[in-house]
Design goal:
Layout: E1 2-7, E2 9-11, E3 17-24, E4 31-38, E5 45-51, E6 57-59, E7 67-71, E8 76-81, E9 90-98, E10 107-108, E11 112-116
Parallel strand pairs: 2-11
Antiparallel strand pairs: 1-3, 3-8, 4-5, 4-9, 5-6, 7-8, 9-10, 9-11
């Protein structure tokens, strides 16, 4: 199983970025894919997840109405981030798990830095 991320970088406050994640090697039809982030000196936190079954999505309050998670098949997932602020600066990780009872990943991408600064 492998998750490969792309995107990220430096953006000014108020700008936008899109992160991508491609999963390979998974079997099963209950794959939940998610985005997490970890800011310096802080614990890794959930940003959003999206399920295969039912197409359910969930966002943490701090990114609601600014970030949009999507997937176009079982293997490709995206995070569109709008109106970025310095507080969004972190290393972002995609994660995945094949489960109908949890969204907590058991596989992770390599992480990608997002820096919001003028």
């Amino acid at each position: 199983v492998q998750l490969v991320q792309s995107g990220g970088g430096l953006v000014q406050p108020g700008g936008s970025l899109t992160l991508s994640c491609v999963a390979s090697g998974f079997t099963g039809d209950k794959i939940v894919m998610s985005w997490y982030r970890q800011a310096p000196g802080k614990e890794r936190e959930l940003v959003a997840f999206i399920t295969t079954v039912g197409g359910k999505v969930h966002y943490v309050d701090s990114v609601k109405d600014r970030f949009h998670i999507s997937r176009d098949n079982y293997t490709h997932m995206y995070l569109q981030m709008n109106r970025l602020s310095p507080e969004d600066t972190a290393v972002y990780y995609c994660g995945a798990v094949n489960s109908s009872i949890t969204y907590v990943p058991d596989h992770w991408g390599q992480g990608t830095q997002v820096t919001v600064s003028s």
